[in-house]
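thoughts on these tokens:
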Amino acid sequence: MTLSLFSQRQLGKKEREAYNETDPARLSFRLTESCSTQTEKVKAIFFWITENIAYYRPVAPGWKLKNRVVFWEEEEREGKVLPSLTDRVATKVLKEKTAVCEGYARLFKSLCEHAGIRAELITGYARTDFNKAHANFRSNHTWNAVYIDSSWFLLDVTWASGYIAMPSGDFVKQYDSGYFLSSPAKFIQHHYPDDTRWTLLAEMPVPGEFLYMPFRQRSYSKYFIQSYLPSRGLIEAVTGDTIHIELQLDLAKRNMTVSPDSLSELLVQQAAPSFASVKPAAIKGDRVTYDFPVTNTGIQWLYVMYNEDVVLRYKLNIRKTKDGIAAN
């Protein structure tokens, strides 16, 4: 499929008139009614968002609540029948014309779905120029995958909209077509998903950040984890070894009644034989310990579970013997 770039395209009259529309279904129809292909519809939605939504910069404690479910708790308590979370967030974004990455991604998903196009929210690690690998290798961003003409494609409407100027922290609107239906090989250079199937690559790459630390999954922050061992994300082992992992949690805040994320079940059920998961062997005070017996060299990725959530991911390099020579 050939895709034309549209980095210099100007909004048409219909798109400009849609600026004040706050209903996702009506906006989706207005943007796509004259489009004849799925690609044209996705392009129209993507470009409109980049031109009309500005990135919201935090200015006070609690800013992360913006565009999220807490905005709707009062209405839920009143017993109202609500639209989906994605549509509610999309409506909020359209009213305020600002969003953080999740707001951008949910707006894109909502508009696509109202246009009859499948779209998914993808969470994971986004590498920026000012990331420090030893500190920020964690789930910190949200983007999308979209299904066009029987194939999945990756895109990031937040990053395509502009950038944050440093050190002022101001949002600068500047369209970047490089984040629209980018090739998986290019996208993985700066987007590493929680669910590795969304790399859309046959072989999952190993980001260099694993040399510094394990990947902290989206659920990591739910349990107030203070520290973990091993501290490096790459574990060398030999068949017959037992890998020991330890977490330290803030005991006063630990809550085993928290509902696990739906993503966790999907991750640990991945069909690939190179994945394995490990659950706590013991919980004593603020310490949670794990033991993972190494039985074969085919395991390459180890998910660390807590309360049925995946909290950490380690990369394993397993050999048959210490000298790397298979036994007879």
